[in-house]
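Entry 14. Structure prediction run on the chain below.
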Amino acid sequence: RVRLPNGITHFVVIAGKNGFDYLVQDPGAGYAKGLYPLRELGSDIEALRFYQPIAHADFHLSHGGH
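Output returned:
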């Protein structure tokens, strides 16, 4: 989570690193801009969520008991 210059918090996906720059994608903009340096947003990172895939997950979703 970052804070935009207007004070609103915004979520982006950190998708890589180039030197000292974290590269982000913006799902709120439909990824139209592609990868770009986090510093372009003019904000520090305020919060992080870390997602890790579940290895060999074997589960089934049921709909209406079927």
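The mean pLDDT is 83.
Filed with the rest of this week's runs.
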